[in-house]
């Protein structure tokens, strides 16, 4: 919720910055390239703003309630592969042994990361998050605006009435948003895959003490060499399927609120 609020606020402010720079009015529609740049900037800003916010909340002992993607995703990824770590059984425990063999929770995982790798360890994979949010933000907003404008122009042509971006209908917002959700994940999904591999490497492929982990680009190169493009897009299908309805709903709500509370 906080991430989306930051994303849309940054997106709107960057659009206004373009208008002021070009001497345009606040109601003037921007070119698609300018909207894409605004989306990219919004994604980058969101990545860093949430990084700072989560760091401050951790200092106040509230890190688990932060909206930052990288620390929370780090803990989530580590918890998801606990049953797959070397020597661990993937057989579900019985009811009698559940308590005895219970896995560590998020707080235990979080404190373990801090203890073993320090505070910086929480942002392992931040490069991937930044790339995904920046490029994905550009693709997300640009695709939504492109599809939305096409649908509006089609309706305007049929009705013979001139229309602008703000005349978008709810179903058009939902369709354009759904397309944007697919574009977001298809565009830079490999960055997210590499990030997840880096965040779970310690559990699944321990390197041993004194052996440094690969960098983001080193990990990407090793994955491509081992599995090719297909490996970098592993899990993309289900992620796209999940993002289509959620992104459609987000833009449906955003455009609906924007029509009732114009800036």
Describe the overall structure:
With 263 residues, this protein is an all-alpha fold. It has a single domain (2-86, 101-205, 213-260), classed as Mitochondrial carrier domain (Mitochondrial carrier fold). It has helices spanning 2-22, 32-59, 69-80, 106-117, 126-159, 170-204, 216-232, 236-260. Helix 6 packs across helix 8.
Q: How far apart are the termini?
A: 20 Å
Can you give the helix content as a percent range? 55-70%
Report strand %: under 5%
How many beta-strand runs? Answer: 0
- Main β-sheet, in a few words? none
Number of helices: 8
Q: What's the number of structural domains?
A: 1
CATH class: Mainly Alpha
CATH topology: Mitochondrial carrier fold
Shape: elongated
Uncertain residue segments? 54-69, 80-84, 87-100
Main structural class: mainly alpha
Mean pLDDT across all residues, rounded? 75
CATH superfamily: Mitochondrial carrier domain
What's the helix-strand series? Answer: HHHHHHHH
CATH architecture: Alpha/alpha barrel
